[in-house]
């Protein structure tokens, strides 16, 4: 429920989302108070017109994710609006969007460090991003940030006026569709004295800094364009389960994923032999020993001669799934995803004894059989997005994965897809073949579903015809986690020769596949004392195409020699750190033991694999990007700061 701030009595304009009664005049606020708490992901109404009209003032808390928030309800808005991309420090943007639920709307995204004051104009069609000017007499140097922002709508032709100190907004606030034109703007009138006083006295992030608070040390990390290996993302190398060779140099090529293909052609009429199951176990052991994880696909043949080669007995297929499921559970720590396979040549769900494409019943039996046998939370991927929609059309909740249900363990939340004819326009060789769904409509669906489930695939010869700008744009919308490094070589060579953003296109894509967490800023005290605490705050951005899709532990560590203070951030889930999240702020207060020796300590962020077998293996820890940031190859730690002083008072 949206928390509300009681404005007392007021006169002036009323505003309703989507139209409604409006009354012009100057608002008058006679009393104000600050809400006791504002949950993350909500907005607060400071002024509400009578009769349930929409908010006239909106306070956005610092924890609000970067996504659209309905001014009337404070809830996340369904529909097609996306957060603004490419907004840098000192920038701000309003982008036009459309929501199927609310109709035409506008949204606002404000970057960190917006100068004071800054009047923001709405971007016109074909125009560039509005940009806040550099420091000038009209926009002096930014002041220390308030951790909140207050907007008030005042008339139908307003402007955004950030006349308060530098704002720190991690959300997007839409202008209601009753605002008539792209030239409509918003304005923030002067705030009542009572409200300013309440904000100043409020505890926590909404309150102003105390005069005697010790100044904090700030470390900024520059943009990092290096490519380096990180688990569960990037280009993969394909291998057959019985030929697990040439693995030694893969990590040097920044490859951390294998596609392991299990050929079942000899078992169409019998159970899998113990020898074949041991072969699969050995393949997973090889992954682990080389610091790799696996995408797995089983099929009854991997050549063009294997059409109609799958068993006609579904019980036989399901029996093989159960046998492999036992091996999957034994080696769950090195699994990234299981591709559904089993039906048709290459397991791509065409050219099967069960139809072309296989029947709905056959597809449901294979997918649901795998979801029952593959250990959660490992996802299962199928070949086309339309298969997800028809398989789950009759399931509770339907086939549209709600953000609140993501990673919740339901069948839908564990079902992703893969495209093995990626970017072969216009239909990716039949991947997008559902009547009434053109490519743009498919991309919108994939954009939403891919935020919460893994996507990957491989290109084909005709993919080389797609311009590099469209390649990158669609990989962003697919939220691509991985691609085949071996096919198609002609397409990949073309990407390497094409230029994108001043660098070879292949380098840009390789760096952004999956997640990539760029460290921006670290705040911490200049010193602390034994028996005290060390408050730290780290700001990150995900500049990759996707988020991680498996759980990951997040911890700050303060260390000196063999002494380690470790604080796990239990409320943080990196799977929610998608590119749309904007600035990700990690905060913790590290307790300094009374017997801590004085001297210089080291502060690190550790993103370890949660599996007991991999937790202490640095090859499976996530590495941050950031110029000036050091990754400890032996300990799997991202070293944020050296020389953190612990001194006796």
TrEMBL record:
Residues 414-625 form the DUF4832 domain. This is DUF4832 domain-containing protein. Residues 230-386 form the DUF4874 domain. It comes from Tautonia sociabilis. It comes from the Bacteria. Residues 1-98, 123-145 are annotated as: Disordered. Residues 19-33, 88-98 have a biased composition (Basic and acidic residues). Residues 7-16 have a biased composition (Basic residues).
């Amino acid at each position: 429920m949206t928390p509300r701030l009681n404005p007392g009595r007021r006169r002036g304009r009323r505003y309703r989302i989507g139209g409604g009664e409006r009354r012009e005049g100057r608002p008058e606020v006679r009393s104000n108070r600050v809400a006791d708490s504002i949950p993350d992901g909500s907005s607060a109404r400071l002024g509400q017109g009578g009769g349930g009209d929409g908010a006239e003032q909106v306070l956005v808390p610092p924890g609000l994710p970067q996504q659209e928030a309905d001014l009337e309800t404070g809830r996340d808005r369904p529909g097609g609006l996306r957060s603004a991309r490419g907004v840098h420090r000192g920038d701000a943007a309003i982008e036009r969007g459309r929501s199927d639920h609310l109709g035409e709307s506008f949204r606002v995204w404000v970057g960190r460090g917006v100068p004071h004051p800054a009047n923001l104009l709405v971007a016109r069609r074909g125009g560039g991003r509005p940009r806040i000017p550099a420091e000038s007499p009209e926009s002096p140097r930014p002041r220390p940030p308030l951790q909140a922002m207050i907007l008030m709508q005042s008339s139908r032709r307003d402007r955004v006026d950030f006349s308060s100190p530098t704002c720190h907004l991690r959300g997007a606030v839409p202008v209601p569709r009753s605002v008539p034109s792209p030239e409509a703007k918003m304005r923030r009138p002067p705030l009542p004295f009572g409200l300013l006083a309440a904000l100043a006295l409020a505890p926590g992030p909404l309150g102003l800094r105390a005069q005697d608070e010790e100044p904090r040390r700030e470390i900024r990390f520059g943009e990092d364009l290096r490519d380096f290996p990180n688990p569960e993302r990037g280009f993969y190398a394909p291998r057959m389960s019985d030929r697990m060779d040439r693995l030694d140099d893969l990590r040097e090529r920044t490859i951390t994923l294998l596609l392991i293909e299990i050929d079942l052609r000899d078992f169409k009429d019998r159970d899998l032999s113990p020898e074949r199951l041991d072969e699969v176990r050995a393949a997973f052991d090889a992954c682990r020993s080389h610091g790799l994880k696996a995408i797995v696909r089983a099929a009854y043949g991997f050549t063009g001669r294997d059409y109609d080669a799958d068993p006609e007995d579904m019980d036989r297929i399901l029996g093989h799934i159960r046998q492999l499921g036992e091996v999957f559970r034994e080696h769950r720590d090195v699994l990234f995803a299981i591709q559904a396979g089993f039906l048709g040549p290459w397991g791509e769900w065409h050219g099967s004894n069960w139809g072309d494409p296989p029947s709905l019943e056959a597809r449901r039996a294979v997918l649901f059989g795998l979801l029952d046998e593959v250990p959660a939370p490992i996802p299962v991927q199928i070949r086309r997005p339309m298969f997800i929609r028809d398989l789950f059309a009759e399931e509770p909740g339907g086939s549209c994965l709600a953000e609140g249900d993501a990673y919740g363990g339901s069948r839908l939340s564990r079902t992703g897809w893969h495209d093995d004819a990626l970017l072969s326009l216009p239909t990716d060789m039949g991947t997008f073949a559902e009547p009434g769904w053109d490519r743009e409509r498919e991309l919108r669906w994939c954009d939403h579903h891919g935020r919460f489930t893994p996507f990957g695939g491989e290109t084909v010869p005709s993919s080389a015809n797609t311009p590099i700008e469209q390649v990158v744009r669609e990989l962003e919308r697919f939220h691509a986690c991985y691609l085949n490094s071996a096919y198609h070589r002609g397409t990949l060579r073309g990407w390497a020769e094409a230029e994108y953003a001043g660098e070879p296109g292949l380098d840009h894509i390789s760096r952004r596949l999956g997640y990539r967490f760029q460290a921006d800023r670290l705040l911490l005290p200049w010193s602390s004392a034994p028996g005290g605490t060390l408050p730290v705050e780290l700001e990150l951005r995900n500049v990759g195409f996707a988020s991680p899709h498996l759980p990951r532990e997040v911890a700050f560590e303060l260390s000196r020699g063999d002494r380690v203070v470790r604080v796990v951030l239990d409320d943080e889930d990196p799977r929610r750190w998608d590119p749309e999240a904007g600035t990700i702020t990690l905060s913790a207060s590290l307790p300094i033991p009374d017997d801590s020796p004085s001297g210089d300590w080291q502060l690190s962020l550790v993103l370890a694999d949660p599996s007991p077998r991999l937790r202490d293996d640095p090859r499976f820890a996530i590495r941050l990007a950031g110029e000036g940031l050091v990754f400890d190859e032996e300990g799997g730690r991202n070293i944020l700061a050296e020389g953190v002083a612990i001194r006796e008072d």
